[in-house]
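User: Hi! Is it possible to get a structure for several chains at once, not just one? Here's what I have:
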Amino acid sequence: EDQVTQSPEALRLQEGESSSLNCSYTVSGLRGLFWYRQDPGKGPEFLFTLYSAGEEKEKERLKATLTKKESFLHITAPKPEDSATYLCAVPPNRLAFGKGNQVVVIP
Amino acid sequence: GAVVSQHPSRVICKSGTSVKIECRSLDFQATTMFWYRQFPKQSLMLMATSNEGSKATYEQGVEKDKFLINHASLTLSTLTVTSAHPEDSSFYICSAVEQSNTGELFFGEGSRLTVL
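Assistant: Yes, the chains can be modeled jointly so their relative placement is included. Here is the combined structure:
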């Protein structure tokens, strides 16, 4: 069965303190890994899709990378508005989600 | 990105009543939509896969007679929680696949159901 594990479950950062979130997966025949951001009481918002090991994608202060066993979401110089739960998931149809990395950025 | 609209965003109902939640893809056609429920501080749990024009495929442990799913058009899927009970209180989220793109999932805003 496809498994997705995210760590750490919760992370408190000072504004400007860069850090990384981890998503490890066991999937037979990976067809992409998705990162989403979820704010409290809202649906997930799509961030990135990564398809092959070595691939990197960036959006503002976020950069996602992928290896054969895990993905990292790097947050560079975070701001309070980056506070959210970050979810990673693997397709295809039965998209398996990790529990998320809850990030709180303190001003 | 593509827009998925979910309605209502919040609903409170009495135990024993039925509640319908709508999920619409506003600017694309979605042959497949997914329904999830999420408990506080938990991950999204897939309930069922909804395919336009055919019966939904339910995940193990999800009661198909309790959670009725209808996908009548390429832009609309509905989830009806029948005879709701307090334990059905949860955050329900739908998503849709934009087939013309790379198969990315786009999510609705979610619906908070509270059963009294």
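The two ends of chain A are 41 Å apart (CA to CA). The first strand of chain A starts at residue 3 and ends at 7.

User: Great, thank you!
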